[in-house]
Structures are given as C-alpha cells and as structure tokens.
Amino acid sequence: MRKIPIRSSLAVFGTALAVACGGSSGAFKDQAREAMPSKDTVQTSAPGSAAPGLASAGPQSDSAIGASSSWKDVTVGVAATFNLSTVFALGLVETITAQEPTNCDATSCTWGPGHGALDSNTFELVVTKNGANFDYVLSGAPLSRPGAAFVAILNGSATPSGSAHHGSGTFTVDFDAAARLDRPGTDTGKLSVVYTNIGPASIQVSFPGAKDHDHPGQIDNIVYKYQADGSGGGDLDVAIHNLTIDNRFTVHSRWKSDGQGRADVEDKLVFGGTPYDVTLSECWGIAPFSTVYFSSNNAAAIGQPNGGTESACAFTPASPSTQSAP
Fold first, then answer.
1. pLDDT at 15 over 60
2. How many CA atoms lie less than 13 Å away from 105 in the CB half-sphere?
3. Is the pLDDT higher at 245 or at 52?
4. CB of 103 within 8 A of CB of 250?
5. Peptide bond preceding 305: is omega within 30 degrees of 0, i.e. cis?
6. 222, β-bridge pairs
7. Using CB atoms within 10 A of its CB, is residue 176 exposed (0-12), middle (13-18) or buried (19+)?
8. Cα separations (Å) of 141 from 12, 114, 174?
9. How far apart are CA 189 and CA 65, in angstroms?
10. Of the given ranges (112-116, 121-125, 320-324), which has the lowest mean pLDDT?
11. Is 272 left (phi over 0), alpha (psi -120 to 50) or beta?
C-alpha cells in the first residue's frame, strides 16, 4: 500500500519573522492580540509522543501481531504533518503581534510593513474588528523587487470567547500566492482550516491542489477532521484523492488517553494494471503500542496475515472514514 502523500512546507514565509516597525499602539492592539488563535491552542494531539515522518511510517501494513503498530505511527505522522502547517502559520501571527503595531485606531491595527534581518520578503499584518469577529490578513512582498505589490498569503477570521487565544474561527494559507514571493517553498494549493478551541479542540482542514511529495508531478485533494475527546484521546479522519491517477485513500483513527487505539483504512488503487479496493483494520495496545489485531479483505496483496482477536481492540466495531475528498 502506498504512503500518505502529504507534507506542508511553510518555509515559503522565510526565516523567523521579526517585523521591524514602531509607532502608536492604541487600545485596540491588546484585543486584537488576544483574539488571535495561538499555535498552542489549534493543533492535533496523537497517541504517544513520537512523530515519525509519513514517508518512514509507511503505511506498509507490515506490523505483525505483537510488533510495533505501523498504523499508530501513521496516525502520529498525519497529526504531526498538519500541525506543522497550522502551528507554523499561527506562530507567524504570534511573532508579529508580539511587536508594537505600526498604527492602530478604534477598530484596526497594522503591523509592518517590515522584515527580519535575514528575511527575503517584507510582511504586513492587518487585524480589523468586524462585528463580533476579528478579521486578519498577512501579506508579503519580495525585497528583491522594490515596489512589487503585496500578495495575501494568510487570511482568517477569529471569534473570541473571552479567554485569550480561545474561540472559533477560520484561516487559509495560500501556497499559490506565496509562490510569488522570493525563495518560495514547493507546496501548491490552498490549505483552509475551520477550528474551535473552546473545550475539546475540533479542527477541519481542506487542502485542494496539494502537491504530492511522495509522487512527483502528482496532485492531491485532501480533507481532514480531528476531534479531541476532552480526556486525552481523539478521533482523526483523513481522506485523500490523487487527481493524477484517480487513487482514493482514507484512514479513520481513534485512540484513548492511554494511547491504545484503532485505524480503519480504505484504499482504492491500481497496481500493475489491476484495480484494488483494499480495506483493513489495525488495533494497537498501550505503550509500546504493539499490534493486537489486524484484518483485511486482501491480506495476501498487502503481505500481512490477519491475526489477533477484535475483542482486544480499544474500539469496536470498525468505523470507516466519513470524509470524502473531491
């Protein structure tokens, strides 16, 4: 079975940003800062603490009963991949708003334009009050082309809850627009996030037009949903549609606070000219996360025999993904 083809490289934004700006602050700046989601409040947890890369994790479905669960590793890897995108993007906003704004009035604040000493681009962040929401836009322009127009690379809207950095909202990272900056990354498409961090975190991600880094020249549409259970466990549901070869793949993982969990997978692919519709379920126990159950409709093609008993699973019965990537 193929690898999960997702990797978000927000290196398009250059080095760690320290906006060089100053001027009036205004009373609005504190409201604006507290309304923004922080990188620590919008991210996905996962069973265990290790976060292997998706390429190294597989999924090869080759963990025998009693061996380390490959699908637990995939679950951790997926969570880590999306966290890199959301945490880095929001980290940029945090870094900028930690500085004094260039100017503020009763309903808006502007940080920049400005850039760090080693940045290849200059940036500007504008936060505007819009009813109960705080809308924000991060724009950039290449330093190598003086006078070049700013392009919006991150925009969002946050609805605060009264507790700093907690609330609900949306934001979008535009990799296609970021490609117009100096030293851009290689990612394509637009990554859009809908979140709430009031109580157990809930995150939904849509990433159409993403470059498939495991398969050069191929493009994916990706959707993702995560729901924390409030006690340390969670539910992770991912669907990928490879537009180039029309391959569809889903994985739905659930885990408890002690780390034990289950992944239910569906993969529709063509291999050697033969179409396959593969389903599998894998369950793992608490640390060291050994496989306790494996079942597939095509174990011979996968190369891993069915084994274990489903009664050993933390979750029963199987629960295939409800996500569908366009």
1. no
2. 4
3. 245
4. no
5. no
6. 207, 240
7. middle
8. 12, 10, 14
9. 39
10. 112-116
11. left
Q: What is the CA radius of gyration of the chain?
A: 22
Per domain, the residue ranges of the chain are 19-247
Query: Which pair of tokens denotes residue 132?
Result: 């109960």
Per-residue confidence (pLDDT) for residue 26, from 0 to 100: 57
Q: Write out the two tokens for 78.
A: 């997926």
Nearest one of 209, 243, 234, 207 to 222, comparing CA atoms: 207
Residue 46 has pLDDT above 70, yes or no: no
- Joined together, the tokens standing for residue 282 give 């894998």
Q: Which residues pair with 238 in a beta bridge?
A: 224, 251
User: Is the separation of the CB atoms in 191 and 17 below 8 Å?
Assistant: no
- Compute how many other C-beta atoms are within 10 angstroms of the C-beta atom of residue 146: 8
Residues in the chain: 326
Which residues, listed in sequence order, are joined to residue 126 by a DSSP beta bridge?
Answer: 110, 137
Burial 243-254 (b: 16+ CB within 10 A, else e): beeebbbbbbbb
Cα 251 from chain centroid (whole Å): 15
Is residue 35 within a helix (H) or strand (E), and if so which, with residue range? helix 28-35
* Residue 236 to residue 199: CA distance in whole angstroms: 17
